[in-house]
């Protein structure tokens, strides 16, 4: 069902998107403010269900790529994502009838809203990751047969480039990443242009409305004095992401973070309150693996989120700070992201990890603390 | 609303050193005289509009309660909500410009974006976007455009703006552009105040810039208050150093506070929570601080105030200050009481500092929360005869209403189903009963009325390291340990009790344009002030 997003929905939407962003996907406050400013002129944005697309609709997803730690300093000029979309339209000769997120995250769920508000086109309630991933080939779009190329990338000077690597999506990522680094670590892209039929076949459906619902759940739980993670687990059990669970509670005692090769990489260490246990979470923009002691506890593509202990607000990797008291909350990824071909694209091996993927709800059995 | 409780409370035989803690709140100025850990005297007086005369009164009363020679005082510590109140009330602020270097980037979210209109108006806020700023790796986004800057500065001058906040993209990595533009502004606009973002905040342009603008619009007020305070104490014969409480419970000297008033921002709740912990001996509890206008509820966990989450709004402005998590409700000693048939409501509006003129018990004509407390016999303030005719049923209904409101806020702050003990502090806590719904127990520690001033007096001492380290591969842990040890050593050298020192903050900013994996490392350590000496 189509629905309208207004300024009042945005707080919940970016909160839920930041949760699905699993530490990455960009700063939710910046995403929020960008769309609020755009909506001041335009009131509402229409979100349409993938089932409402006609086969010959042409959808061009829009996004930011690069290091989240750069975005919080070098804010956008505001023209970049539309510049990228226009460049792709003129390159392909197809006009976008809608835009769509490529991933769920604080900024990348909102860039398409920002574009939609500027152009007056709808946003499709779906994306290609169902969470956030650091690289552009890590898309269910790609896994199920849509090419990322041609891709258009824009910077704040109004300059654009087209990357066309045919069916080689990993090469598209590499080339676009090289351009992003030259742009100072963040660029704005339009890619994976596809028909309405292809969206229905390859996208994770209804992730914007899910983000809205998850964000509302956290806020309402807080208002009603309920434990936010219990409320989240209840909601998740009714969705494609069927299982959510707290795997560790403690205080952040170390955050190692560098901006390299166009990513924010690092490790957060969390010390338990009551015992000597510790938890280490590695990230490459997104949280990839959580280890408790020497044991692997959650592995990509399952979702790892770090939440403020008391409020349940998700914390992104670039805002993790020494001394924060947190809970590590894991969410099982939808089944269409656990198939062999999906795991080949964004399973542990795609990140250089040697462990085989095991759904974390099964790993849970092995580690009883 | 409390008559000053005079007289010595605790005496020790040996004088270690005496200090005065003062809390300047919106309604009352509280003062305590401490000798080591003993409270020798406490007073409560009305806050004056000029801040300083209220402090003079407070000190006079202290001397009356417990005579001492000014020369015997080794330190005067002041905690104040004066600056944060100025922002919340959008009053007493200077005309301020925000000049950001970053074009063509950042234009989608210009300076002052998301600020409440009322506050922008109160500071006559002007935002300017100019070329400049760095990339993360030290390249320029664009070079400074001198003629553009001169045009902007002329506009700032023409508009009569007296304080300028300068921010530049990635200035925590490279501060040169902010410094260059600050010099230019100072050269072109004589007498203007300049605040630079790299000195005030951390990574995150919008939050750092917001904190810098807040600092800028408080500069004139801070100068006036700080100069006034120093002069007042000097005239009264005090030679002791004058400190102001900072957000993290540590102290800064008065000259520093003049330039960085924003650093005092959260000191009010921090002092009240630390004072409550000190007085009650509780490690984990809810602290309810009842003042003249509001009751502020915070949570102590293992002796530390629970910190608010990343997003802290101050007067509607998003910042990334580390502040205690505090929820307020409009229940205080001066809250107005309204009676409609059987329905009695209290607050949220208050007569505030006019309590001593307007409340029934002081001969006034406004029914206030304090009048109810006196009528019920719960408190002894003013003239009880003036409230003798109040209907006891209505008095009870009003008091119950307040207790229920406060209990509700305590309940909202609680994050587990287990009931917490509640420590009541602040002069207005006489309004509340000895039992609250959902509280494990209710404590009213000795000296509860002046917990904030005690919090200021038992302030902590910090040590900070902030410089660029070369981090060789595989040596990060060693480098961090070195930096942490240095911060601890500095805190101890500054007077912190070694066993109490904790690392409270670590921030690393890679400086990619310098060779050798250069990293700016900031570490802050904080500990209790030793009682030996300052």
In short:
The complex is a heterodimer of chains A (369) and B (534). With 369 residues, chain A is of the alpha+beta class. Helix content of chain A is 32%, strand content 25%.
Can you describe what's shown?
The complex is a heterodimer of chains A (369) and B (534). Chain A has 369 residues and is of the alpha+beta class. Chain A folds into 2 domains: 203 residues, 3-Layer(aba) Sandwich (CV3147-like fold); 140 residues, CV3147-like (Beta Barrel). Helices cover 32% and strands 25% of the residues of chain A. Chain A is built from 12 helices and 18 strands. Chain A has a 7-stranded antiparallel beta sheet with strand order 16-15-14-13-12-18-17. In chain A, helix 2 packs parallel to helix 5. Chain B is of the alpha/beta class and 534 residues long. Among the domains of chain B are: 125 residues, Rossmann fold, CATH 3.40.50; 123 residues; 69 residues. In chain B, 30% of the residues lie in helices and 27% in strands. Chain B contains 13 helices and 23 strands. In chain B, the strands form 6 sheets. In chain B, strands 3-2-1-4-9-10 form a 6-stranded mixed beta sheet. In chain B, strands 11, 12, 13, 16, 19 and 20 form a 6-stranded mixed beta sheet that branches. In chain B, strand 22 and strand 23 form a beta hairpin. In chain B, helix 1 crosses helix 6 and helix 8 packs across helix 12. Chains A and B meet through helix 2 and strand 12 of A and strand 22 of B.
Topology diagram in text:
The complex is a heterodimer of chains A (369) and B (534).
Chain A: E1 3-5, H1 10-20, H2 28-42, E2 45-48, E3 58-59, E4 62-66, H3 68-71, H4 80-92, H5 111-119, E5 123-124, E6 126-127, H6 140-143, E7 151-154, E8 160-163, H7 169-182, E9 186-190, E10 194-195, H8 196-202, E11 204-205, H9 207-223, H10 228-236, E12 244-260, E13 263-272, E14 278-284, E15 286-292, E16 295-299, E17 303-308, E18 325-331, H11 340-346, H12 360-366
Parallel strand pairs in A: 2-5
Antiparallel strand pairs in A: 1-2, 3-10, 4-9, 6-11, 7-8, 7-9, 12-13, 12-18, 13-14, 14-15, 15-16, 17-18
Helix pairs in contact in A: 1-2, 1-9, 2-5, 9-10
Chain B: E1 18-24, E2 28-35, E3 38-46, H1 52-65, E4 73-80, H2 82-88, E5 96-103, H3 117-122, E6 126-131, H4 146-158, E7 163-168, H5 176-188, E8 193-196, H6 205-235, E9 242-245, E10 251-253, H7 254-259, H8 267-280, E11 285-290, E12 295-301, E13 304-305, E14 312-314, E15 317-319, E16 326-329, E17 335-340, E18 343-350, H9 355-358, H10 369-375, H11 392-413, E19 420-425, E20 439-443, H12 451-457, E21 460-470, H13 476-493, E22 502-510, E23 518-528
Parallel strand pairs in B: 1-4, 4-9, 5-6, 5-7, 7-8, 11-19, 19-20
Antiparallel strand pairs in B: 1-2, 2-3, 9-10, 11-12, 12-13, 12-16, 14-15, 17-18, 21-23, 22-23
């Amino acid at each position: 069902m189509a629905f309208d997003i207004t300024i009042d929905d945005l707080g919940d939407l970016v909160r839920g998107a930041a949760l699905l962003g699993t530490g990455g996907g960009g700063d939710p406050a910046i995403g929020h403010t960008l769309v609020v400013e755009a909506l001041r002129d335009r009131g509402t944005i229409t979100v349409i269900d993938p089932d409402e697309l006609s086969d010959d609709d042409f959808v061009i997803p829009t996004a930011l790529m690069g290091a989240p730690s750069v975005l919080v300093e070098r804010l956008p000029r505001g023209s970049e994502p539309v510049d990228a979309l226009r460049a792709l339209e003129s390159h392909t000769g197809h006009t976008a009838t809608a835009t769509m997120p490529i991933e769920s995250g604080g900024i990348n769920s909102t860039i398409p809203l920002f574009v939609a508000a500027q152009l007056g086109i709808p946003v499709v309630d779906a994306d290609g990751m169902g969470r956030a991933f650091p690289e552009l080939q890590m898309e269910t779009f790609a896994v199920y047969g849509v090419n990322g190329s041609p891709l258009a990338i824009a910077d704040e000077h109004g300059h654009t480039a087209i990357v066309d690597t045919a069916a080689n999506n990993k090469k598209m990522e590499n080339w676009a990443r090289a351009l992003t680094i030259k742009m100072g670590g963040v660029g704005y892209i339009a890619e994976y242009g596809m028909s309405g039929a292809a969206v229905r076949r390859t996208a994770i459906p209804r992730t914007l409305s899910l983000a809205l619902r998850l964000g509302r759940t956290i806020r309402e739980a807080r208002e009603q004095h309920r434990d936010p993670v219990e409320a989240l687990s209840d909601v998740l059990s009714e969705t494609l992401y069927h299982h959510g669970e707290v795997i560790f509670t403690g205080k952040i005692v170390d955050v190692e973070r560098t901006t390299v090769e166009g990513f924010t990489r690092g490790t957060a260490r969390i010390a338990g309150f009551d015992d000597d246990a510790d938890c280490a979470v590695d990230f490459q923009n997104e949280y990839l693996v959580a280890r408790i002691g020497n044991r692997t506890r959650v592995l990509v593509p399952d979702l790892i989120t770090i939440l403020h202990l008391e409020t349940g607000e998700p914390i992104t990797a670039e805002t993790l700070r020494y001394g924060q008291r947190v809970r590590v909350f894991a969410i099982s990824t939808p089944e269409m992201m656990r198939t062999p071909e999906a795991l080949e694209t964004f399973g542990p091996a795609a990140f250089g990890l040697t462990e085989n993927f095991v759904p974390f709800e099964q790993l849970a059995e092995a580690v009883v603390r | 609303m409390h008559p000053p409780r005079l007289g010595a409370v605790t005496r020790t035989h040996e004088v270690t050193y005496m200090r005065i803690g003062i809390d300047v709140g919106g309604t009352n100025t509280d003062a305590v005289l401490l000798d080591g850990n003993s409270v020798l005297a406490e007073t409560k007086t009305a806050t004056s509009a000029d801040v300083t005369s209220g402090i003079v009164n407070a000190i006079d009363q202290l001397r009356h309660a417990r005579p001492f020679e000014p020369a015997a005082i080794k330190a005067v510590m002041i905690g104040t909500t004066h600056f944060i109140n100025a922002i919340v009330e959008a009053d007493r602020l200077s005309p301020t410009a925000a000049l950001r270097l970053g074009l063509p980037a950042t234009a989608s979210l210009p300076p002052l974006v998301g600020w409440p209109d009322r506050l922008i108006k109160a500071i006559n806020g002007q935002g300017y976007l100019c070329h400049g700023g760095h990339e993360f790796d030290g390249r320029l986004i664009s070079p400074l455009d001198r003629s553009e800057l001169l045009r902007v500065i002329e506009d700032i001058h023409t508009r009569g703006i007296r304080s300028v906040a300068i921010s530049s993209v990635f200035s925590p990595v490279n501060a040169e552009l902010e410094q260059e533009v600050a010099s230019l502004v100072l050269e072109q606009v004589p007498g203007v105040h300049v605040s630079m973002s790299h000195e005030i905040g951390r990574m995150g342009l919008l939050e750092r810039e917001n904190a810098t603008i807040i600092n800028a619009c408080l500069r004139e007020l801070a100068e006036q208050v700080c100069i006034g305070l120093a002069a007042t104490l000097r005239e009264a014969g005090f030679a002791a150093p004058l400190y102001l409480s900072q957000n993290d419970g540590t102290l800064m000297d008065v000259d520093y506070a003049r330039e960085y008033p924003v650093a005092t921002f959260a000191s009010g709740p921090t002092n009240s929570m630390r004072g409550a912990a000190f007085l009650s001996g509780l490690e984990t509890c809810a602290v309810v601080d009842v003042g003249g206008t509001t009751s502020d509820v915070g949570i102590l966990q293992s002796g530390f105030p629970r910190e608010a989450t990343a997003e802290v709004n101050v007067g509607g402005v998003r910042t990334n200050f580390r502040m205690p998590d505090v929820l307020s409700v409009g229940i205080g000693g001066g809250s107005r009481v309204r009676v409609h048939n059987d329905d009695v409501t209290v607050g949220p509006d208050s007569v505030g500092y006019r309590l001593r003129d307007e409340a029934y018990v002081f001969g006034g004509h406004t029914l206030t929360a304090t009048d109810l407390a006196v009528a019920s016999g719960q408190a002894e303030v003013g003239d009880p005869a003036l409230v003798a005719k109040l209907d006891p049923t209505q008095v009870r209904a009003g008091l119950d209403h307040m207790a229920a409101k406060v209990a509700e806020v305590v309940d909202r702050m609680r994050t587990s189903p287990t009931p917490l003990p509640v420590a009541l502090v602040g002069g207005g806590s006489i309004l509340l009963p000895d039992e609250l719904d959902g509280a494990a127990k209710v404590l009213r520690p000795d000296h509860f009325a002046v917990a904030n001033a005690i919090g200021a007096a038992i302030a902590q001492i910090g040590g900070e390291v902030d410089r660029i380290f070369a981090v060789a591969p595989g040596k990060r842990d060693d480098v961090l340990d070195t930096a942490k040890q240095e911060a601890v050593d500095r805190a101890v050298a500054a007077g912190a009790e070694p066993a109490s020192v904790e690392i409270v903050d670590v921030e690393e900013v890679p400086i990619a344009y310098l060779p050798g994996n250069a990293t700016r490392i900031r570490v802050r350590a904080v500990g209790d002030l030793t009682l030996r000496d300052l």
